[in-house]
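Box 3.1 A note on notation
Throughout this textbook, protein chains are presented in two layers. The first layer is the amino acid sequence; the second is a token string describing backbone geometry. Keep the layers aligned when reading.
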Amino acid sequence: MFGIGMPEILVIMAVALIVIGPAKLPELARSLGKGYAEFSRSMRDVRKGFNDMTSDFEEEREIITNPARVIEKTFESTFAVKDEEGEKKPDTPAAEEPSDKKA
């Protein structure tokens, strides 16, 4: 954590106790904790927005680099039906097997 070890933290806490005083130290610690929580919340929101934006760019990149796969995925999701187990399968007629019989 920024190269600060336990001895340095103890010195900082002792100086803070002397300078600020024991009466105001809990109030200061509480306000610092609230500030840190708000900062963490803001950073999570920024990170979530950034991840959403990058996932949008990934979708666009895939459309440009592999349009055939995107069309295939879209076709499968549009024309798929669920079978008895709840799994999706394409809603296309089964290919007829060639008959070995001669008429």
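The first strand starts at residue 80 and ends at 82. The two ends are 84 Å apart (CA to CA).
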